[in-house]
Amino acid sequence: MNVRVRAAATSANLGPGFDCAGMALELWNELEVSEAVSGANGTVVEVEGEGISETPRDGNHLGLRAFALITEVEGKRFRFLNRIPFARGLGSSSATIALGLVAACLWEGVEPDPAELLPLAARLEPHADNIAACLYGGVTLAWEEEGLWRCRRIANSLPLDLIAVVPEHSVETITARAGLPAEVLHADAAFSSGRAALLGASLATSDAQLLAAAFHDRLHEPYRSAAAPLLGQLQEKPARGSVGVTLSGSGPTIIVWARHEESQACAEDLTKRFPDCRVLAFAVATSGAGAF
Ligand code: HSE
Fold first, then answer.
1. Is the peptide bond before 252 cis (omega within 30 degrees of 0)?
2. Is 269 close to ligand 1, i.e. is its CB under 6 Å away?
3. Mutate to test the pocket of ligand 1, among 11, 14, 18, 151 (most ligand atoms within 8 A of CB)
4. Residue 65 in this model has a pLDDT that exceeds 60
C-alpha cells in the first residue's frame, strides 16, 4: 500500500488578522507513506529538501506525530519532500502536520475532512490560522469556539498580487510569540480591530483599495520588527509599485503587496534591493491539503 499527499505553504495574519486570517500559497510539500521494506522493524523517516538538518527522523517528527493521532506509524516508511522554507513564517510546520493527518486518513481509507482535521491539528499547533489555510486552501478565517477551532474559506483569490521576501535567517514561532506583550493599549486594540474588520470585508468583496487600507497592525508586527528588519525597511522605503507590506505569520518573511500591473516591476526592485533574500511571487493555492 502507498499514499501520496501534498500540503501548501501558508501565510498567516495578513497584517491585522492576528491568529485568524490565512492564505494558502502555490508551493507544496509532499509525503509518501508506504509499508517499510519487509523484515525492517520500526519506522523509516526520510527527508529531502528544506530543513533537513533540523528535522527528527523518528516518532518526534511533527508529521509522524500528526499521523499517529489517527493511526499507527510503526512499520511504515515516510518520505518527506520539503519545498517550503523552514522557520521563515511560511507555514512549514502546518504543512507537515497537514501531510501527516491527510496521509493517515487516506491510509485508513477515510476521505480527509478539513473540519474534522482542524481540531486535531490544533493539538499540535494551538494557533490554528496557518493550519486552517493549509487544510482548506484559499483565503481563510479561523476562530475558536467552545474550545474547538473552526474555519471558513472566504475567497479563492486576492485582488492584489503578493511577493514574499524570504531572508536567510530563521525565526522560531515560539520565540516570536514569547516576545508579544501580555497586554496592549486600548487605542492599539481599537486600531487593529478596525483594520481587521477592513481586512475581512476586503477579502469577502475582493476590493483592492480596502485591502491595501487594511495592511496596518499594532498587535504583533511592532513587537516582531526587530527580528524581521526588512519590515521596517520596506515600510519606510516601499518597493516600486508596493501598496502595502505585512509580516508573514511570525516572520521573518515579509509579504509585499502590489497591483497586478506593477507586481513584476515590484519583484524586480525587491530582487535588486535584497540580493541575499529569496524573492518569490506567489499565487493563492485554491486546493487544501490532499492526495495527488
Ligand atoms: N498567527 C501566528 C503568529 C502565526 O503570528 O504567531 C504563526 O506563523
1. yes
2. no
3. 18
4. yes
